[in-house]
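Dear H.,

Thanks for agreeing to be a second pair of eyes. The structure we're designing against is below in token form, covering all 430 positions.
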């Protein structure tokens, strides 16, 4: 067997393989057995017919083509392993020559791990943490703002017969007609809090509801300003017909120990504030840590140059798209509707996200290279322990999961734990 590996780019290899006729005999035998298993040949049990009989039944060309496929499946993985090629994708295989009695020639194009000459990543990480890390603090205002949100969530709501005002929760029926098209928007029993900005996409829509009583009707036009955050309504003129169904007043609880006691294992307002402060601090620290991780990888990347494999960039773009689609599905919305609202196509999004996808892939490759150099490994026990913790936290039953999903989860946990160990080495992850 003759092998020629041509370097097309830093991450792309074209492998040409020539298998002489005498070596093809073993693959003809395997091909004959495989084809024989699928055939009913009179006088022979499936898979037991001799090569010559199978060849007479299917024809020399079909048998040789199957033999070529057997040869590729067996030789390609060995070539990758023996030449220390870290394949990042399945190969694109093209059979160049395949005629009975002759040599078989095939070409396989594959993307491989780029060569990365790492800089002094530990020094870069230490310098970044020293210069970029910010002290995390929680202000009294942030705590008080959270207390107000808690009051809003625990507010009692009761119907009133007066005119609606800011702070009231109202239920409305409405239709909106665009001046430039026949399409209308319509909602029934729609609940909003006046002054909360929930309908800010429709300009001063909420302001027009103030002063209305339950049972009243009102018609008003709105010129929505041109702005990216207005989506499909940007720059439109809409005429609304609104029926006020009910006006409800919010009665906010007082800020005292009774408010605190509405939470488990909390007795005083001071305890509640401390709990809020502790939670907000942890959240800020986690965000600061994530910011530092990105900054460290960004600074390491500045000191090294390597080609980011296109095949991984495309895969990352697909992952980003799938993430958005899943989030929309969880909110009972469709990706198609989302594209209409933002006035873009899937290709537009992929184009906008490409730079981010390239960064994500580059950072992942750097993490892999560092872990490889440092000999960082993740044991199967560590993976299974993390899986058990996940199922215990979510309340899901591991035994009910498909094996395919479990394997994907194991791969994800493996990479996550490995990256955590790398960041721990770089003095970021505790």
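And this is the sequence the design step returned. I haven't edited it by hand at all.
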């Amino acid at each position: 067997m003759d092998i020629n590996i041509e370097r097309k780019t830093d991450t792309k290899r074209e492998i040409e393989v020539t298998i002489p006729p005498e070596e093809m005999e073993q693959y003809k035998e395997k091909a004959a057995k495989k084809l024989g298993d699928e055939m009913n040949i009179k006088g022979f049990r499936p898979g037991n017919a001799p090569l010559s009989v199978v060849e007479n039944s299917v024809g020399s060309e079909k048998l040789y083509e199957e033999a070529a496929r057997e040869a590729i499946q067996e030789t390609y993985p060995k070539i990758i392993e023996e030449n220390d090629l870290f394949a990042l994708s399945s190969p694109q295989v093209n059979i160049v020559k395949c005629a009975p009695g002759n040599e078989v020639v095939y070409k396989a194009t594959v993307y491989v791990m780029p060569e990365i000459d790492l800089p002094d990543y530990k020094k870069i990480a230490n310098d970044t943490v020293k210069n970029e890390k910010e002290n995390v603090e929680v202000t009294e205002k942030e705590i008080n703002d959270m207390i107000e949100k808690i009051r809003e969530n625990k507010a009692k709501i009761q119907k009133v017969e007066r005119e609606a005002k800011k702070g009231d929760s109202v239920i409305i029926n409405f239709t909106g007609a665009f001046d430039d098209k026949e399409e209308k928007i319509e909602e029934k029993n729609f609940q909003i809090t006046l002054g909360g900005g929930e309908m800010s996409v429709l300009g001063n829509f909420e302001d027009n509801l103030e002063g209305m009583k339950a049972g009243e009707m009102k018609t008003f036009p709105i010129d929505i300003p041109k702005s990216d955050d207005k989506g499909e309504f940007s720059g439109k003129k809409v005429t609304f017909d609104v029926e006020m169904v009910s006006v409800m007043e919010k009665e906010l609880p007082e800020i005292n120990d009774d408010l605190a006691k509405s939470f488990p294992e909390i007795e005083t307002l001071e305890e509640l504030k401390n709990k809020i402060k502790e939670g907000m601090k942890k959240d800020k620290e986690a965000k600061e840590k994530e910011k530092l991780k990105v900054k460290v990888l960004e600074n390491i990347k500045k000191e090294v140059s390597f080609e980011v494999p296109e095949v991984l960039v495309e895969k990352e773009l697909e992952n980003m798209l799938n993430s958005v689609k899943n989030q929309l599905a969880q909110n009972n919305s469709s990706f198609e509707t989302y594209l209409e609202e933002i006035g873009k196509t899937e290709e537009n999004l992929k184009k906008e996200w490409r730079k981010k996808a390239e960064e994500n892939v580059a950072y992942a490759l750097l993490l892999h290279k560092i872990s490889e150099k440092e000999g960082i490994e993740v044991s199967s026990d560590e993976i299974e322990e993390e899986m058990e913790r996940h199922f215990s936290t979510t309340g899901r039953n591991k035994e009910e999961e498909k094996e395919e999903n479990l394997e994907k989860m194991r791969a994800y946990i493996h990479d996550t734990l490995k990256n955590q160990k790398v960041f721990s080495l770089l003095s970021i992850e505790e």
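Two observations from my side: Residues 67 and 73 are 10 Å apart (CA to CA). Residues 269-302 form the longest helix (34 residues).

Warmly,
E.
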